[in-house]
Write a structure and sequence with these properties.
With about 210 residues, the chain is α/β, with parallel strands linked by helices. It has helices spanning about 50-55, 65-70, 155-165, 185-195; strands at about 5, 15, 20-25, 35-40, 55-65, 75-80, 85, 90-95, 110-120, 120-125, 145, 170-175, 205. The protein has four helices and 13 strands.
Amino acid sequence: MLDNITWFGHDTFKITGGHVVYTDPYKIKKPDTADLILITHSHFDHCSPDDAAKVTGDKTVIIAPKDCAAKLRGNIKIAAPGNKFTAAGIEIEAVPAYNTNKNFHPKSNGWVGYIFTLDGKRYYLAGDTDLIPDMMYVKDIYAAFLPVSGTYVMTAEEAAHAACDIAPKFAVPMHYGEVVGTIKDAERFAGEIRRLSAGGPKIEAVILPRH
């Protein structure tokens, strides 16, 4: 179950298949080579040039918002909400990510989450976001990576509601255990999904071990 996904903490995942995808590389311990790096926004714990460099090879493509581009090195494509790309052989859509009741991630900044397709499966990386109306249009998702820690992003309970709106096969909590949030947030998220989805489409919450 999700054996092709490794969580390195915070919003950093490695998803493998025909290609290797890294999301928001942060505190990378071992060098690696990604085919594709997806960066959601310019905060230091998501756009870390040194960490991105640790997983960048000669053919790596980096997708990032405009305000990240000057900080990064390599083959960079700029993303804004609504953009669609094919990069490193992977279909990618940049989708909105923003706060509705706090000011850490303003909608006007044009920061993003991503939907990408790997080996025929659609993945959704929400980015740093609240529960937003745009999520109603995110469908046919195999695995959704959702922030759960509150403070800067949606709470565990709000993230569970987002998961039920999206109805992925698997819902994976992120954005805890590093800057803010604990494993208890992930556990509340999983419990709330079980409660909300009882009798409806089956959504399996998966708390991945940290590597």
